[in-house]
Design goal:
heterodimer, A: 118 residues, alpha/beta, Rossmann fold, five-stranded parallel sheet, 5 strands, B: 381 residues, Heat Shock Protein 90, 3 domains, 12 strands
């Protein structure tokens, strides 16, 4: 069976690398984008099974990307997990599957991912 | 208590000498310093000179009437309380005087009690007004303090928010470094351990720098001005950044001018101000992948009593929006790489030295910082 694909959106390359490794170790495939703009062009070609999103990013801002994503027919069913350094979930991100504050507990994150698409 | 005149001074105006004498004795006995005048003109002269807070005046006088005097006095100082002395049958005039804000009127022949009651009324009003004035003043001070406190709190809030945001990101990186190391170790991929370790080390260095920046911005200490040999100083600055520049294969051009330029400055502060800019210059070069090679120029010059540092890079450059915000606290054009402290601190340091930073930058063309500080500080910085 083909591996499920997770799109990681975070402007910090180290955190992208961390999440990539974590998801690979748990049997998932990954693609990544450093901001919402990059993520926009990725979802035009590939529909990921799940997205992790940092809300604080340069260029295309997290919440706006999220809003656009949920309006896009082919993407609106994709579960989105917000992982952010901000204290609480932004209002426009209320529809996200779950909100993790940085630094996050990797076991709990995997629990949520497995529950959604495992 | 703050008053615009003296509460124990009374000006007594009457054209009849015996009346003046009798009242003067009575008032002096009550502890007032009494000034007397026999007509309105004389009264105004004394009023302007002595600034009494209470005026006692006859209503019918040759020349200027008591009502006219009342109006003139109220015009000069509306806080003056005027008691009108009226004769029998002057009721209309007495009422008119109340219209012009006399505090009270007493009728001739003047009884001691009536005079005391009128004076008490005048004094009570003066005291109430003074208290009110004082309350208003304290209220204004309180309001101002409250606003200042609010400003402090909100910038403190912004600061704490931004710091905690930065720290959370850095902690996540540490987690990442540890995870990579652990995972590599468990799978016996020893070559991958190094990757985790270098992320770890780099993040720890970043935390150190962030802590130092916070300490600098938290307390603006007084400058320790010393006479510094500029060429030596600039060389010391260059040494610190050299390694990073060379490691990234950027050409580094130095020009420190003549050996004998001296400048009064806080070397430690100017050092960190320049390092912040040079650090940014390297990052700007690294961010620009369009050019095959990059160059950073660090130059020292002088003109008309000023020392000039110039730092030029061939990096990505900034657009107008970024240029405008670049010195703001917590603004960073470097995304997760920046803390938003560096140039804010640089700007405050140069301002503390009574200097100025000029900035030229355009996308793709690089950035040119021109930092000018006076060589001598005659006054305290």
């Amino acid at each position: 069976m083909e591996k499920k694909k997770i799109l990681i959106i975070d402007d910090d390359p180290v955190i992208v690398k961390y999440l990539e490794k974590l998801f690979h170790d748990n049997g998932y495939d990954t693609i990544f984008a450093y901001d919402g703009l990059e993520a926009d062009s990725i979802v035009e070609d590939v529909i990921p099974d799940l997205i992790t999103l940092d809300i604080e990013m340069p260029n295309e801002w997290g919440p706006r990307f999220f809003r656009k994503l949920t309006k896009n027919k082919s993407c609106k069913e994709i579960p989105v997990i917000v992982i952010s350094g901000l204290g609480s979930a932004d209002h426009s991100i209320r529809k996200a599957v779950k909100f993790f504050s940085k630094p996050f507990d990797s076991d709990k994150l995997m629990e949520t991912v497995n529950k959604e698409i495992g | 208590m703050r008053t615009s005149g003296q509460i124990d001074k009374i000006l007594l105006v009457d054209d009849e000498q015996d009346i003046r004498e009798v009242i003067e004795i009575s008032l002096s006995g009550s502890g007032y310093t009494v000034f007397t005048a026999e007509n309105g003109k004389q009264a105004l002269d004394i009023f302007k000179k002595e600034k009494p807070l209470i005026v006692l005046t006859d209503i019918k006088m040759p020349g200027m009437s008591g009502i006219d005097l009342l109006r003139k006095i109220k015009n000069i100082n509306p806080d003056t309380e005027v008691i009108i002395i009226t004769g029998h049958g002057d009721t209309d005039l007495a009422i008119k005087s109340l219209k012009y804000e006399a505090i009270d009127f007493i009728t001739k022949p003047i009884s001691y009690d009536a005079l005391q009651i009128a004076l008490k009324r005048a004094n009570d009003k003066i005291i109430t007004r003074c208290q009110l004035e004082e309350y208003t003043n304290s209220l204004e001070i309180l309001l101002r303090e409250k606003t200042e406190l609010q400003d402090h709190l909100s910038s403190l809030g912004i600061m704490i928010g931004s710091i905690s945001h930065g720290i959370k990101g850095l902690l996540t990186r540490l987690d990442g470094g540890v995870y990579l190391m652990e995972s590599a170790y468990e799978n016996s991929k020893f070559d991958e351990i190094g990757e985790g370790l270098s992320i770890f080390k780099e993040t720890v260095n970043r935390i150190k720098k962030m802590v130092l920046d916070i300490l600098y911005s938290a307390k603006e200490r007084k400058l320790k001005l010393e006479k510094i040999n500029v060429a030596e100083f600039a060389a010391d600055v260059a040494v610190v950044i050299e390694q990073k520049i060379e490691k990234n294969k950027i050409e580094f051009h130095r020009d420190f001018g003549s050996d004998d330029i001296e400048c009064e400055m806080d070397a430690k502060y100017i050092h960190s101000a320049l390092i912040n800019i040079l650090d940014n210059a390297v990052d700007a070069c690294l961010a620009d992948k369009t050019k095959s090679s990059h160059k950073i120029v660090f130059k020292v010059d002088q003109d008309n009593g000023n020392l000039i540092f110039e730092i030029k890079d061939s990096g990505i450059g900034m657009d107008l929006k970024t240029r405008e915000k670049i010195f703001n606290l917590f603004y960073s054009s470097k995304g997760s790489k920046g803390t938003g402290f560096g140039l804010f601190i640089t700007d405050s340091i140069i301002k503390q030295h009574h200097g100025r930073i000029n900035l030229n930058s355009a996308i793709g063309k690089g950035t040119h910082f021109n930092i000018k500080i006076p060589k001598h500080h005659t006054k305290k910085a």
